[in-house]
Amino acid sequence: MRDTRAELLMQAETLVRGRGYAGFSYADLAAAVGIRKASIHHHFPTKIDLGAALVAAYAARYAAALEAIRRDVPDGPGRVEAYGRLYLGGVEQGLGCLCAALAIEGEALPERLRRDIAAFFADHLAWLEAILREGQADGSVRGGADPAALARYVVATLEGALLMERLFASPAAFRGTLAVLVDGLRPQ
């Protein structure tokens, strides 16, 4: 049986990651899924509802991935590298990070979506800060730098590399940036 809601979320995510929130309409989404616009409204009465559902689904996928990284990867630099590989999928698909694509639109976004995106990034920063603090405590991450500042540096570096390598279509260059980032976290 067809799961129309899931198809809508999948196609809408691709559209937002490729074009931005303002860059697609329900008509675009209806064409991508092969349904009428009225059917979309049945699942998501407004575009804000769709955007909020997209961010929630994306955040849930990332939360599961972060939990797996924490469980399966033993040290701070390895965890940051595994985190960076999550971004690599976007580079390989020619797509940006959903929440970064939304954040770029800033004040043009509805307040609800701005709050949801801020919460997404706050969760990632908190996770990275904890990973980096633990890495400093166990000696796998260089000491001296504030873990909160390092967490912001990691996200900024990865988001910037994703944006640039999406333009240049270069997963290899993204991998190189990730390697430099991770090497810079290791003790000297």
From TrEMBL:
Presence of the UniProt keyword Transferase in the record: no
Keywords per UniProt: DNA-binding, Transcription, Transcription regulation
SUPFAM superfamilies, alphabetized: Homeodomain-like, Tetracyclin repressor-like, C-terminal domain
Protein known as: TetR/AcrR family transcriptional repressor of nem operon
Keyword Transcription assigned: yes
Stretches assigned to the HTH tetR-type domain: 2-62
Pfam family, one: TetR_N
InterPro entries: Homeodomain-like_sf (IPR009057), HTH_TetR (IPR001647), Tet_transcr_reg_TetR-rel_C_sf (IPR036271), TetR_C (IPR011075)
Residue ranges of the annotated DNA-binding region, renumbered to this chain: 25-44
